[in-house]
Amino acid sequence: MSEHEGHLSPLLKQSSGVLAERGEGAYLYDESGERYLDFTSGIGVLSTGHCHPKVVEAAQRQIGRVVHAQYAIVRHRPILELSEKLGELMPGAIDSFFYANAGTEAVEASIRLARQATGRPNIIAFRGCFHGRTMGSLSTTSSSSPVRQGVQPMMGGVAFAPFPDTYWYGWDEETAAQFCLKELDYVLQTISVPKETAAMLIEPVQGEAGYVPANTTFMKGLQERCREHGILFILDEVQAGNGRTGKYWAFEHFGIEPDVVVTAKGIASGFPLSVMGASDALMAKGWMGSQGGTYGGNAVACAAASATLDVIREEGLVENARERGAQLRARLEELKTRYPEIGNVSGIGLMLGTHMVDGQGRPDGDRSARLLKECERRGLLLIKCGAWGGQVVRWVPPLIVDAEQIDWAADQFEAALEATR
Ligand code: PLP
To answer: Of the candidates 210, 260, 263, 381, which lies 20 to 30 Å from 64 by C-alpha distance?
Structure first.
């Protein structure tokens, strides 16, 4: 390289030392041909694995036809087909879709829609949830300090309520749910009264905070309060959606029906695409011109997403997430009985977290970092999350992962636990 070789921003640190050259299925190869089992999925994006032949074929075919068919100017077939397929996957009432690129843009769109449709200013967000890095989404985010610090003040009109994190509180699900609903009622009584509250925005399974699921009592309680007061119920399925938890949408675990669903990541197997879905009637309450963007609903990304949804269905990837998730959880729970530094195993399906603690039971981000390095040395890529320097090692393999790969990964993790003691 020349002496003017460019550099990535020093603020953008990689969790591994890998220089990726190509990917195939659950594996990533570096430039020297070294193979890594990729249990990061590019932060939960590669639902169908790296370069699934059907997704690649659909994208290549579309590139040869039209790449940028701007949606404020024309329509294109892939976006229409994708909307058709999404309509079948979403709750009955949700039949209208707005497309953008990143998850955060779709969250922003849901906030705009909620404010416009209700004429109310406030959003109630929940402790620990992550919704993105642009200012509106960031203002509803509280998963860790690095994403918020130094950029305050945030957007106004956001009130935080607690999330039923059983491990944090040390309570069972029901006790945590009842406490959080009581606190939510306090917020609705004092900080954001119903007539000023446009929406409640929540992750059904928290991602960045440490793979922490909500529960049925709590989510039904939220839905009840939303329905009673005409507040919109927005589910952020950016990370937990598209089969990852063993149901197509994570909110299906809790028997609820949101008004708005936001998703991205796993929907397009690595192509940048995000979606905000609502009923046609709700969408129509937004203001004309308030939705748009130069690249949203890109034709190649939509073709890749359409193929991704086909692969998820044809290859039974939702069921695979459930079965392989149960296998992985059993392995991690067993390790927890022998390694007290695993304080908790959390999550649902193929969205699992091992919460590392020190001898006093305090969150141990340093141990997670050393575990990641040791696993990488052994050919397994993992990532971490959590508010205490990333104390949670997260398990987010592609949904195509097989039983042998799960066992191999768990073996490497056990060896890394030994090596980092
Ligand atoms: N919402 C959730 C639940 C996420 O996990 C993320 C990203 O990790 C986002 C929103 C933001 O998505 P993006 O990084 O594509 O903007």
So the answer is: 263
Whether the pLDDT of residue 1 is over 60: the answer is: no
Q: What residue owns the CA closest to ligand 1's atom 1? A: 131
Question: Atom 7 of ligand 1 has which residue's CA nearest to it?
Answer: 132
Read off the pLDDT of each residue in 135-159 and give the average, rounded to a whole number. Answer: 96
Helices (H), 247-363: 280-283, 299-314, 317-338
DSSP SS3 for 158: strand
Residue whose CA is at the smallest distance from ligand 1 atom 5 = 239
Average pLDDT of the segment spanning 240-256: 98
DSSP 172: -
Instruction: Tell me the domain boundaries of the chain.
Output: 5-51+317-419, 56-314
End-to-end CA, the chain: 40
Does the pLDDT of residue 5 top 80, yes or no?
no
From the CA of 102, give the closest atom in ligand 1: 15
Q: Which residues line ligand 1 (CB under 6 A)?
A: 43, 102-104, 107, 130-132, 203, 207-208, 236, 238-239, 264
Give which of 343, 344, 372 is closest to 360, Cα–Cα: 343
Is domain 5-51+317-419 in CATH 3.30.70.20, yes or no? no
Closest CA to 215 of 410, 350, 223, 156: 223
Phi and psi torsions of 167, nearest 5°: -70, -40
- Choosing among 3.60.15.10, 3.40.50.12650, 3.30.70.2740, 3.40.640.10, the CATH entry for 56-314 is 3.40.640.10
DSSP 8-state code for residue 267: G
> 34-48 pLDDT, tens per residue?
999 999 999 999 999
Dihedral class, residue 128 (left if φ above 0, else alpha if ψ from -120 to 50, else beta): left
One fold for 5-51+317-419 and 56-314: no
The stretch 99-116 carries a mean pLDDT of 98
